[in-house]
What does this fold into?
Amino acid sequence: MRPGDDHLSDLADRGVRPRIDALTARDRLVAALTRATRALIRASGRGRGATLPGLLAERWAPGIAGRAAARLDRVVLVSGTNGKTTTTAMLVAALGSAGGRVTTNAEGSNLTRGLTAALLTASRDARDAVLEVDEAVLAGAVDQLRPDLVVLLNLSRDQLDRHHEPTALATRWRAAMAALPQTAVAVAFADDPRTAWAADAAPLSMLVTMPGAAGPRDGGLCPRCGALFDRPPDAARRCPRCAWRPDVAAMVDVHRWTSTIALERAGRTYRARLTVATDGYAIDTALAWTAATILGADPAAALDAIARLGAVQDRYADRRWRGRRVRLLLAKNPAGWDEALAAATDRRRAAVVAVNAGTVDGRDTSWLWDVDMRRLRGRLKVTATGARAEDVGLRLEAAGVDCDLVRSLEAAIAGTGECDVDLFADYTSFRSAQRLLDHG
Amino acid sequence: MADNGPIRIGIVYPELLGTYGDRGNAEMLAWRANRRGVAAGVIDIPAGLPVPGRLDAYVLGGAEDAAQATAADLLCSQAGDGLRRALGDRRPILAVCGALQLLGTTYRDAAGRRIDGLGLVDLHTTAGTPRLVGEVVSRTREGELLSGFENHSGRTWLGRGVEPLGTVVQGGGNNGADRTEGIRCGTLLGTYLHGPVLARNPFLADLLLGLVLARRGIDPGLLPVPGCRDLSAELHRARLRAVLTRRRLRRP
It folds into this structure.
């Protein structure tokens, strides 16, 4: 394989599959009913209609999502443990900068029914779809939607009670990549051996690497043979036992200095200033940008569009609430916590740690012990809250962090006095916090 | 032989045997010792290095199949001699989930591959369906309730005369069939309970700590009892309340 821009232009020239309008008369009726159901749910104020309409459509017309996807020019799937929603929004912004009309599942409803709902409720002039997909259903989505490009972000421990063991997921991802259409491309993070290994099986791939970064969690084993890597993760290391390593022929390098990043590809460098100064955000940016450029977006305009993106679904948003600022940090697994802690370094802020461990969060809270909570030492005030406040409180105390236990999220935030707050929240707590802050 | 330095708690191969927050068990032991005025610290034993044989306690955790096979290879080699020696010296060892399987004679994984265990205790495991996932409550021979979260496809069967750590009150336990949970074999304790188990069960943490202190010639009864709140006990009560609300507790 030839390196650098040649490889990229190969990707750009690989041809676009024809649009096929395969919707049956029944499909059209079901699509209309789906849109009506969504409108009804929204009008009744009982939700956003991002899930149930899709579920009904699947029941009424099995396979309808695939037929709806075939009508579009391009379908892109974004998956991984952390950063799905943000990277999807980045890619939508980058493709929008090229004037494309893009449909997406911005509400984060990322199981099959959510994808179906997004595809069926797309506006008539939508040409592309960019969809975030739960890591456990990616293989099914690839099979049904026949995507043109798949972005593989990362895989680490999350919701283990939902069978999300990372190596097992990587194996399923790899099979899904092998089943991609021949013109499809996988864009993946190379320093996470599992995503790189999955991308290896795709017909075409483009990798992103961040030289000198700390490397991902849980990346110590060769995904192919299970041997221990003998040096820290990066794209170039080989497995000492089976000699596997990512295909580094086509690579984008990311460098970061606080909030400034440089993306380097085949001798050309593109710079931008991002709103969040963490490695994870920089890597997500690089992956979204790489995908956008493969899909034909202008590199400089695409990066500019990503850099101008505000908070996505309130992630990292610093919102005002009753006389103080509250920064919303989605922290639902150890790798996500690493990112949140890297973003929130102001010790003058109080910290509120909210964990419910509901069904969609993963009901086992053991992972809290893999988070380096010592980094919350020295805060003016630390409060544990949520349905599992005791689990959090004990974890904090064992890390030498004094904390209060307050069951209600509202009381926990209000109890910090005038102090600004960093709120570390698992998924359901995050949604509760959004509602709380929305209502003042 | 008397040793007056701080208590050293080893985490065996955390990169391999630590999928489920298992580091927390070592941290809880140290935390509880420190609360009682006994200096204690946690030592990581990186995968592949020889396990030192003279630590005060050892903690081993759960793993995915590939990591477990790699850990089994390493621990069956010379690198694991220290662990075998430690058990022979009656040093406390806590093995959770995958590590419990690893200490037995064999483990047959979902692909039908046979992984030889260390054979330190007479038990064997085969992968099965459905996966046993959820909250567990068990009762120890002292009548204490243990609480934890299980997540395993392995079905573990104890050999004749091997005592379980507890009898299942709720959940699957070793195999979902015979109501045994874990093992209790001298100074070797094994369990499927995550949480981590020592965070959610101060009784079990103190049982292990008692074994550690006894080897050091310290009587736990003579140590100061901390006046401040014991969050571990609060957590224990909170989890039992949450899990057993709709279930009347039968006395044994």
Observations:
- Chain B has one domain: 7-244.
